[in-house]
Structure formats: structure tokens, C-alpha cells
Amino acid sequence: MRIGLTYNLKPEIAPTPGDPIDRYEEFDSEETVGAVAAALRRLGHEVERLGWGPPMLDALIKRDLGSRLDGVFNFAEGVGGRGRESQVPAMLEMLGIPNTGSDPVALALALDKGIAKIFAAGHGITTAPFRLVGADEPLAEVDLRYPLFAKPVAEGSSMGIRNRSVCRTHAELQALVTQLQYDYRQPVLVEEFLPGDEYTVGVLGNGDLARVIGVMQVVPRDPAGDFVYSLEVKRDYLNRVVYRMTDELLASGALTPEQLAAIQQLAVDAHRAFCCRDVSRVDIRCDRDGEPNFIEINPLPGLNPVHSDLVIIANGHGWSFDQLIGRIVDAASERWGQRASSS
Questions:
Q1: What is the pLDDT of residue 118?
Q2: What is the dihedral of CA 294, 314, 52, 19, to 10 degrees?
Q3: Which pairing describes strands 198-204 and 71-74: parallel, antiparallel, or unpaired?
Q4: Cβ(50)–Cβ(60) under 8 Å?
Q5: Which of 56, 99, 265, 319: disulfide with 323, CB 3.0–4.6 Å?
Q6: Of the candidates 131, 151, 128, which has an alpha carbon nearest to the alpha carbon of residue 141?
Q7: DSSP helix/strand/coil, 326
Q8: How many Cβ atoms from other residues are within 10 Å of residue 207's Cβ?
Q9: How many whole angstroms separate alpha carbon 107 and alpha carbon 275?
């Protein structure tokens, strides 16, 4: 197939003074774009790099006769507010070009963590009690059990999540919420901190055919204090955490088969409830009683060939990078074929 690539590259400049250090954290490196393109070529596809924004639109609209794309492999984050991840899929829908991954509605729904938690709870998926604080709203007393956890409502890649994100007093919470409002210009999600084990789960496929790639536990090397899978930890993951995969979790007794099944079911339930297409990554953490809780779902997971969680999960369960990319394309092309055959 002839496949276009849509993406946002990290700028070759550092954040300006006054910006948070993670301003461009969501954007991809040339390493990631090159790796996805190379994998698609090794799988036998013809690849055209499209990027994002006006250059992408020009490349899509001003096409020579006979140069039609069969589809687009999309991992563009977009630029702007809560709907930014929906920008490219919405434009592709307008042009009638199919793409890998979720549609604009699912992407926008999942990116707003507050709406996502309301939506998950409405589908019977367990999630920690929470409150939302508006972008310009002063923090009032919250009827939640401390310690509490705060993060910007519509960011990814651990943006706004730091080692200090756990608050034990109202004064700590007020200072953190104020800083997050200033840095990210958006509402803040405040939720009860989940002190149990943390897992991230890769899911592939669509509807009833969606299946778990594998479960990965994120274990701190230093177990002291309240562990947060923060920006600092992710940037130094080789020294800060150990990743334990499904077989090891079962063999070591860290999880019983029943506990593993509950984590897997929560991930698949979330993937289906949000109507995610082709691929997602679901973050889960256990509460005080050891019960798995929904943290968030990412229908546009990172694909760096070395350090993205989804790729680490796939590698840890015996998949190569090419196999992962190929399975995403297979799930998408099956949808595209169904659409074409029904039109």
C-alpha cells in the first residue's frame, strides 16, 4: 500500500524562559518518524512523509492523478487545545482518506482526563474519586481523602506530572494547582492518590476483536515514598524503574491469574467503551484495597522504538517493532476494506 505519515516533530529549540520544561514533550523525534517509516517500508509499503499542518494539507490536496494514498499512518499530536489530537483525523475524514488509529471524537474524549474519567465511570469502569478546578478558578476545599494527586487535565507524555505531584495538605495542593494553572493555561484534575501498583496495558484491534498485547508493571527501583511515574522518572527510566511483564508477574506471584485477568479486562473494557480503533495504551493503578483503577487511556500512544511504553510492552512480550507497526496497519486496513466494501 501507499501510506502517508502524519506527525509533529520536536522543534530544534529549547522551551523559552518561563515555559515548563516539558513544553514539547509530546512531539516526536526524527528517530521515531524514521523508525516508523523504515518499518513500513520493510513491511512492503510505499511511504510518503506528510508532517502536519498546511504542508500536510498541501501534500494531500495537490496530488498528481494516480498518486492516491491508500491510507495514512497517523501519530500527529496537533497543536492547540483539548481538540489538538483530533485535528489530523478530522482533516483526513474531510478529504475521505482513511487513517490508522482512533477517530476525532475518541481522541478528544480521551485527551481531556476529567471527561475521560466521567465517561469511564459512566461505563462502570472503576476510577479514583476526583474534582476539577477550572483554569482561572481558585481552589476551594475538596471533599476527597488525602493524599491527593494533581495534573493538567489535557496533556500527555507525563506533561505536568512531577515527583511533587502528590499532595498531603491543602497548602501543598493549592500551591501545585496554582502552578499548573499558570504553566498549562487549563483546568487541573485533582484525584485521590492511588497507592498501589501501577500497570500499563497495550491493546490492539477493534470492537469485539480487540485484544491485550501484554501487561507491564512499572516498579520503582527505590520503593521509598509515594511512587509517581513522573516526567523525571520517564526521562531517566533505565535508572529509576524496572518493567515487569506478564510472564514474570505470574511466575513471581506478583499477580494471580485472577488479578491479571481483572487488569486485562479493565483495559479492554476501556478500549471498547471509548471506541478506540486499532491501538491504545491504558494506564491502571491499584487502590488501597489492591483493586485496579482506570487512570487514563491513550488512543495515540508514543511509538519511539526505544523508550515508548507501548513499544517496551510489545518487545517484552516477544514482538519486534516491525510486528507492532504491522499489526496496527493490519487492524486499520481491515477497517478500511470493510468501509470500501460497504460503500
A1: 97
A2: 60
A3: unpaired
A4: yes
A5: 319
A6: 131
A7: helix
A8: 11
A9: 10
